[in-house]
Amino acid sequence: xxxxxxxxxxxxxxxxxxxxxxxxxxxxxxxxxxxxxxxxxxxxxxxxxxxxxxxxxxxxxxxxxxxxxxxxxxxxxxxxxxxxxxxxxxxxxxxxxxxxxxxxxxxxxxxxxxxxxxxxxxxxxxxxxxxxxxxxxxxxxxxxxxxxxxxxxxxxxxxxxxxxxxxxxxxxxxxxxxxxxxxxxxxxxxxxxxxxxxxxxxxxxxxxxxxxxxxxxxxxxxxxxxxxxxxxxxxxxxxxxxxxxxxxxxxxxxxxxxxxxxxxxxxxxxxxxxxxxxxxxxxxxxxxxxxxxxxxxxxxxxxxxxxxxxxxxxxxxxxxxxxxxxxxxxxxxxxxxxxxxxxxxxxxxxxxxxxxxxxxxxxxxxxxxxxxxxxxxxxxxxxxxxxxxxxxxxxxxxxxxxxxxxxxxxxxxxxxxxxxxxxxxxxxxxxxxxxxxxxxxxxxxxxxxxxxxxxxxxxxxxxxxxxxxxxxxxxxxxxxxxxxxxxxxxxxxxxxxxxxxxxxxxxxxxxxx
Length: 513
Fold this sequence. Notes:
Elements: E1 2-3, E2 8-13, E3 17-20, E4 29-32, H1 39-52, E5 57-61, H2 77-86, E6 100-104, E7 111-112, H3 117-128, H4 133-148, H5 156-168, H6 170-177, H7 182-203, E8 225-229, H8 237-254, E9 266-270, H9 274-277, H10 282-294, E10 300-306, H11 314-317, E11 322-325, H12 333-344, H13 354-360, E12 365-369, E13 381-385, H14 397-406, H15 422-512
Parallel strand pairs: 4-10, 4-11, 5-8, 5-9, 6-7, 6-8, 9-10
Antiparallel strand pairs: 1-2, 2-3, 2-13, 11-12, 12-13
Helix pairs in contact: 3-4, 3-8, 4-5, 4-7, 5-7, 5-15, 7-8, 8-10, 12-13
């Protein structure tokens, strides 16, 4: 609950009221506790206080129970008892709804969340896909060629087409960009297929989400609550990690250095935070650690909600200054060790044993330690968390749909755009090359056919000439044969006559003698 008069966030009340200094909220916070101990209530109370203070909020809704913020709360005996015991009525406590916008990577329960492959960039993608240094180098070459040849990488099909294109033309690019091995191309394609199988085609595309749309206020000056539907998303760790890696990097780049502010510019709440770290790619862990360490100077407050502080890496936990610890269970040696670690993280209160208090806390109770105005952790207090003003029940699908359609962002991101990008350019180029090859093949076939016809014509002409010559030869032979017979016949006749004359001459001479 935000108190305007004192400019403080009222979190809980025990022997005394516990307040969070808005100027220390960007030192980040942790809300921990076993299932059913009241973590969600605490999350809502803080998120509502930030909104009332004019700070936009981002909430990852893992369980689907944060949608109720669009509806006013309803009184019950437990809430009434808290109101009476804490004297909240005198501070203007009432039930009311909060301005909320819903987002969903799958576009089913909120405005679609997308970004382009080009905006993600080779560095984040390479780290996310856990590529080797050689594969990372090849991916950077792919992006550089895409830039140089003015090919936009919008979605995964663009990137896959571009990777294949570079691989197919590796020899042409070698001298200018460096060696591109087929092994690296294959490894990158396999990694992209894995991301595609997890739903990457849904996340990458246009229009891409402008995160400045999260920085908004309603007509009363309250910060808008941006609620991301995560019930399905967190079941796909690689896609969830891709979204978070992109979002955190974009937020980090979006805000300039601001130093110490009176209040944050934006507050993040990551429910079921262990899902961020369980089997998360190293790139995501590095980004979260860097963000938690550096982004506070940009006026961003980050809160992790989880069952046990041990779910959070030490490198991140060490950057958290505000802690709200609900009850823990300690049945196993591992649980007892975690309990001791949680108790030791607080500045001890001489009025009670912290470790014993942790296992005895009831629902809605918590151990609270926040940073004072000088940034020093306060002595831990055992206190009851204030009730939220919005509904604890999840909103109906009809209410959520109505809120989505009433949002000023409705229609801005709903329709997918698939304008000309790398895939279309490469496909068109390949089709053009295929058409040219087909045309060349057809022309070659026509030339071959023409040549074959010419050869056939020439062959037939030769055969005709040969036949003609053969016919002429036969006629000549026949004529020669007839002439020869005539000559021979004439010769025979002449020969006979001459012979007769010669014989007669001989006999005449003989008789005269």
